[in-house]
Write a sequence for this structure.
């Protein structure tokens, strides 16, 4: 096996149309939209498939109210949500089949939706937040205030945990011949 460290956009294969599958987990949306479908198609064998998904924070009706409640702290530290921010339920995550087929490079787009819940204690949740670019970019003062409040609020709960819901839409499409 050969490991190559570069961006998808910059990488060039040794030969075209040599892969049965191009797959991206949580990265497809970060790729240059003017390049991603064309390059994926070029990499795939005639019977090859494109598959991608992205894990999103979702808010089912019976979800934990913690996330709406903690928004006041985000506002206080100047990291609040934009006025047009959405709180999607798992079934409201976007389906990109139209975008995929309109590229003219893929057909037979199929979608499967998945949702799940993970319970986090304060430190586990803060560890997760430390992987998100918005939280990484915060100043120490902002993070200290937010993380201190997360710890304080979760310590008041009987089990000391929050429930975060995740959702994803898996897209699979066949390369058009």
């Amino acid at each position: 096996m050969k490991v190559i460290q570069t961006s998808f956009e910059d990488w060039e294969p040794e030969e075209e149309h040599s892969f049965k599958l191009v797959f991206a987990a949580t990265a497809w949306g970060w790729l240059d939209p003017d390049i991603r479908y064309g390059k994926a198609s070029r990499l795939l064998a005639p019977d090859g498939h494109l598959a991608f998904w992205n894990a999103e924070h979702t808010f089912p009706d019976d979800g934990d109210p913690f996330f709406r409640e903690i928004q006041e702290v985000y506002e206080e530290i100047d990291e609040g949500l934009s006025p047009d921010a959405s709180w999607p339920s798992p079934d409201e995550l976007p389906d990109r089949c139209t975008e995929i087929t309109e590229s003219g490079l893929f057909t037979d787009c199929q979608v499967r939706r998945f949702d799940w819940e993970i319970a986090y204690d304060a430190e586990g949740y803060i560890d997760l937040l430390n992987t998100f670019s918005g939280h990484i970019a915060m100043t120490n003062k902002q993070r200290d205030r937010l993380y201190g409040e997360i710890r304080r609020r979760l310590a008041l709960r009987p089990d000391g945990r929050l429930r975060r819901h995740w959702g994803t839409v898996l897209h699979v499409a066949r390369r058009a011949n």
In short: The CA atoms of residues 66 and 162 lie 7 Å apart. The chain is about 30% helix and 30% strand. The mean pLDDT is 94. The helical segments are 36-43, 66-69, 71-76, 97-102, 122-129, 133-136, 140-155.
